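Class prep. Write one:
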Amino acid sequence: MDRAAVLGRLARLVAAGDRRQQFAIRLCDAGRRLVGGQGSSISINSGDTEARMTLAATDQVAAQLESLQDILGEGPCREAYRQDEAIVTDLDDAVSTLWPEFTRSALETAGGVTLHCFPMRAASRPFGVYAVYAYDDLSEPDDVVQFLADVVGIAVLQDASAPRPDDIWSARSVVYQATGMVSVQLQVTPADALAMLRAHAFAHDATLDEIAEHVVARRIDFRTR
């Protein structure tokens, strides 16, 4: 792999992108074009697989694939971060039975795509995942996509216009606040409360963040469900 050539191609694609878009989205789009994908996303984690947030997505399908993994608590991006290794999942393949609920919902959302999830690393430790979905094989081998994921991750970390980590997790804290409220309402553990939030989001075709905001604003009370 010629790393300089890959960086040069990525830089040219980013430069050619829509400058009105956030830098993270331009990176996502440049990366998926470089490897021949249909769409891509960047998610970041804060120490464990539960604390994760989608930072950028190139299209609605990519955003929905990320949201499903938040709602269901399972999926290849979570596994890629947990194992710190690339996870490639063909939604039509038997391997996808590892995440049966995600697979069923993802097939409805995206059809028979292959989802390529690569950990983004800084100082040899994963801090997020770069995901690309495609209907055909990617045009670049896994080592190039992994290098690209690391480069995209470092660029996002260094982006002065991007939200700071504290700001990102402050925004995400609404989920934890809602989890605590549901835990009190139903007298269940936080893990069970989070499961209830996910189930409610899934049943109402909403994101986990949207349901959490309704709970915090007291528009949803699980004692009256």
